[in-house]
Q: What sequence folds into this?
């Protein structure tokens, strides 16, 4: 970050105009855009689903005869699939847009849930694949949701909003709830995985509806 984070985002933000662009609504710079809620939904669901499935995977593996070394290896591979694809996720958001990547996030997390649910308890490769897909979906969701929140928040309150969403909502609340929910369903790992995947799929229609609303002309703007 010290070497490659150039230009400094704070210094760059200070050079940006604080007034709305010509032709924009008068209160544009002080009001969040409608997509903010979608960004929160993508972040929260990605965190909740990832924590719920990841937390119970070692217990599921132990119940099916795997030792600590096998479950430890799966959990070691999982964070790599969460963080290593981040540059790819950012490039895909730039190329295809946040709406398309919200759909990709939902699809990847749903696929992870389905693979985890259908994988035989003794199948190390399929369980590993499920955790890799889970990490990849989380990476897509984190980058996409953050991009949506950033683009939907006024510059004056952007840092505060990002911190609130990322820590208080997405990480703390969603992570804690995901851990608790997974504990309740620990007796049935396939049900937990499928329900988590279905829950993640909510991000796709939410993003599509928000994109259509934001592209629709505002009331009274005609003429």
A:
């Amino acid at each position: 970050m010290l070497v490659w984070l150039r230009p400094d985002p704070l210094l760059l933000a200070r050079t940006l105009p604080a007034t709305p662009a010509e032709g924009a609504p008068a209160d544009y710079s002080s009001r969040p855009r409608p997509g903010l809620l979608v960004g929160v939904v993508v972040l929260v669901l990605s965190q909740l689903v990832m924590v719920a499935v990841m937390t119970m995977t070692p217990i599921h593996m132990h119940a099916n005869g795997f030792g600590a070394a096998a479950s430890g290896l799966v959990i070691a591979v999982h964070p790599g699939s969460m963080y290593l694809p981040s540059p790819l996720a950012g490039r895909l958001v730039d190329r295809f847009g946040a709406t398309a990547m919200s759909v990709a996030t939902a699809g990847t997390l749903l696929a992870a849930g389905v693979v985890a649910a259908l994988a035989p308890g003794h199948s190390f490769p399929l369980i590993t694949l499920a955790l890799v897909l889970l990490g990849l979906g989380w990476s897509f969701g984190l980058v996409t949701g953050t991009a949506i929140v950033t683009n939907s928040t006024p510059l004056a309150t952007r840092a505060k909003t990002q911190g609130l969403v990322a820590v208080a909502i997405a990480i703390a609340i969603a992570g804690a709830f995901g851990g608790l929910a997974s504990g309740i369903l620990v007796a049935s790992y396939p049900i937990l995985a499928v329900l988590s995947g279905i829950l993640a799929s909510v991000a796709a229609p939410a993003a599509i509806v928000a994109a259509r609303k934001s592209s629709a002309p505002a009331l009274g703007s005609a003429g």
